[in-house]
Amino acid sequence: MTDPRPKRPARPTSQPGNKTGPKAGPRPGPNAAGKGRGAPYTHTPTTQRLFFALPVPADVTPALVAAQGKLRGNWRSVPADQMHVTLAYLPAVPHDRVDDLKKLGTRLFTDAAPLHLKLRGTGYFPNEGSPRVWFVKVEAEGLNELAAALRAEIQALGLSTDDLPFKAHVTLARKKGPAPRVPPILFPQHWTAGSAGLHRSILRKTGPIHETVSTFRLRGTPATPAPAPESAAAEAIQETP
Fold first, then answer.
1. pLDDT band for position 222 (cuts 50, 70, 90)
2. Of the listed 95, 169, 199, 210, which one is catalytic?
3. Helix or strand holding residue 90 (H, E)
4. Does the annotation mark 116 as catalytic?
């Protein structure tokens, strides 16, 4: 017996790679162009991290790099081309105040005399028991006074510096996990610093990188040391082996 009901047309068979209907085509991802939830978002910080510093010359860094070779474990060494002596660190500088700092650097360092820097022994910050930073101490006559004058001028501009007391040093490595300490090392290297720089610090997962914003020449006249009394000079000669 024949069925009197009309038969429905058969559905078309979909072939691989030939999807039909509203599901065909890729869905827009989170970076798709246009407005809405899928639009890309770029964060632009309103401030930047800056610091004034004296560079470590290329003929001094090899000794420091050799010392870094003694590190073991989760220490992250500072690259030789980024070694410096920080004079003042500014953690949050608005973009429109950078020119004020450039003018300050030009004015202050033009009157400052070149400094004769000497490396000393290594140390740890904040302390040897729980170290986070491995550094080498630096000494120079007039260095503390220059850093104090610079920080005072920065604060006079209405900008903030870090509140840590100034201790001249060159950072050699930063600790990122368990790592043994390195025994103390003394360095005989010294140099004359004839320039300073204003630098931008950019944080990366592999550590901060530094970009030079401006450089300044130290053009002042070094102070002439007072001659030692004749008696003291004679005693010094007698005590010299």
1. confident
2. 169
3. strand 84-94
4. no
